[in-house]
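JOB MANIFEST
job_type = single_chain_structure
chain_count = 1
residues = 263
[input]
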Amino acid sequence: MGVKASPDGDAWLLGPIGAVNESASQFIQRIAAQEALTVRRNIPSSGLVESIDDWAVSVSPRVKDFYKKTSDFRLSVTMAWRPGFGTLGYLVAKLFSRRLQQLNLPQTSSSDIAFDSEFLQLTDGNGRNQYTIWHRSIRDTGEVVFFGIYSTCRIPSGELCVKVIFPLPCGSATVIFRPQSDQHGNLLLVSSGKRYDDPGFYFIVQDGQGSLWKHYLSSFRERIVVSEGCDGSLTAEHTSHLWSFLVYRMKYKIEEIARCSEQ
């Protein structure tokens, strides 16, 4: 089952978890009711984070704008499973993703899949944002692809990292990314490590007594690169590896909604 999690010592890793047979909307309603929060939907110029100035990265203004004003952008994606791993994608979807409406990646190579995005902020009585949720679905089918809670955390080493929680029944899949930048002003988010307390992929499970257990998957590694082109256009590439094997690659085209409507 993994290692028992400490509510205090592992606070940087933990967060809301899902319930059995609970949809994304039911999850949001439950968390809001339990914590007396107000749900605010699709506020213009709302972002995954309020600022990336404390991430210790040097990125282009356009990349920074995407994270600070994510709701002002729309995404389309080209997705490709690597040979030999497409069957894995099918099994995950059949047994897991479609039933849970989470981590539901298309199983075949596809081009220009349009995403519908919804941004939700759960705020307390003083207007302070407690949770930022990004809900992405495939426009043509309505299938949920990702439903994540975005925030930052400081891992035990003291590094500031990006944390994404994907609620699952009686637990969550939680990914910790180390932010970096390159000489071109591109943002790199790297989820990779060797041991517990490192950045990487974690499963959190709640047992029948209410205790939480953490399991670190050091073999599963992810990398996201958000880049600005010479013409000011934005793209992103998301790759996942199992050990040294590339499992899938997603390439995003990111367009500012206001610019698109002017064309």
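[summary]
The first strand starts at residue 3 and ends at 4.
Residues 86-100 have pLDDT under 50 and may be disordered.
exit_status = 0
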